[in-house]
Structures are given as structure tokens and as C-alpha cells.
């Protein structure tokens, strides 16, 4: 066998070893990751409610408006409140972080948090029942992702708080989040239907509109704890890839 053939054989063996190693690492990585069955952006919600029934006389905001803490939202006139004021049960000109009470039974509701008006449940001229909600505010800088996964009992045990989750937004942009909380319900097949809340600083700081508005679907990939024999090798290769910018 000539030296040329020997070098070709050696080169072929090296190529085969590289391909096998790469395929092994990819397989190991896929074994430690699971894709969501569904995932969507959500936000912390604050409901605006009333203890008095009455008629909405003013709307100061619309759905989608940005509000600051203390901004006026709605005004309601309540006959029951007016009676309580006259009886001295409630003081006129009472002010709290949630509402201001004026004379003649007028109550002006205010935003208790800064954020975006997600929903207005009643319009001017409409009647609201005591104890009902007038609207909902999505708190600013509170966006997160709620996602669902179907995993085996063994893989459920590999989900950790703080685990990395890759989030792909509708514009194909990928951001990284971390597992904040996990809840599970096991079906008859022994599969764990797992709900995972994911927090991401990059997402929470985004505007709650457009592609990052609550309810927007996303794709989530959850990284499980790697218990395989190649776990250390996979981590080393992944760290090296990040260092060189891959």
C-alpha cells in the first residue's frame, strides 16, 4: 500500500470519526430537550373592580392605551354610594390608590399599576353590578411565557427550576428564558402534561403589543437535566461553540 493510499485511508477514518462524534452529540442534545405542545406570551393581570353598582358616566381610556399608576380609568355614578355618603357610612372626597369618591355618588377608578389597558368590560352608559370587574390592566415589564409539554415520568424528573428555555417568536427571533415554575397533571398513559412558566428579561422588557402582546403564540424548547454518559462532553462542546461565537 502506497503512502498516498495510507493518507487517504487515514483521512477517511478521521472524517468518519468526526461525523459519528457530531451525530452522537446531536442525538444526545436532542435527548435532553423537548419541544412544547403549545406556548403563548402572558402577562401579570390586575383587575379593576367595584364594590358598588352603578352607571358608567365617563371613560378616560381605551383598550390598548398605556397608563401610569394613578391615571384615571373610568367614572361610575352609584345611587347606593350616594346614600351611604349621606348616611355617613362612606366619607365624601375619599381617596385611595384604586379610586376617588366624590359627592353625589361619583367614584373615579384609577390604575393601581403602570401598564397597558387589556380590556374594558363596560362602556359609557352601561350598568355595572356590585362586585363586578370594569376592566383589566397588563402590568408593564411583566411579560412571560406559559408553555405546555408532554413528557414521560422519567423526563419530568429532569425538569429543573432555572433550566434554560429557548423561545422562538413569530418573527423568527430566538430569545432565552428560564423556568420559573412547574405544574403537572399525569394522564392515563403515564405521560406528564406539564405546564411551565418561563421568564425572560428580554421578553419582560418588551412592549405588550405587536408580536409580544399577551396571547401571542410562540415555540418553546425546554432543556432537561442531562443525565447521559456524554453529558460532560456535550457541555464542553456547547461551551466551546459559544466562546467562538457559533
UniProtKB/TrEMBL annotation:
Name recorded for this polypeptide: HlyD family efflux transporter periplasmic adaptor subunit
Organism annotation: Curtobacterium caseinilyticum
Gene3D superfamilies: 2.40.30.170, 2.40.50.100
Region Disordered, annotated ranges: 180-220
Pfam families: BSH_RND
Polar residues: bias regions: 180-194
Domain Multidrug resistance protein MdtA-like barrel-sandwich hybrid: 51-136
Residue ranges, compositional bias (Low complexity): 204-217
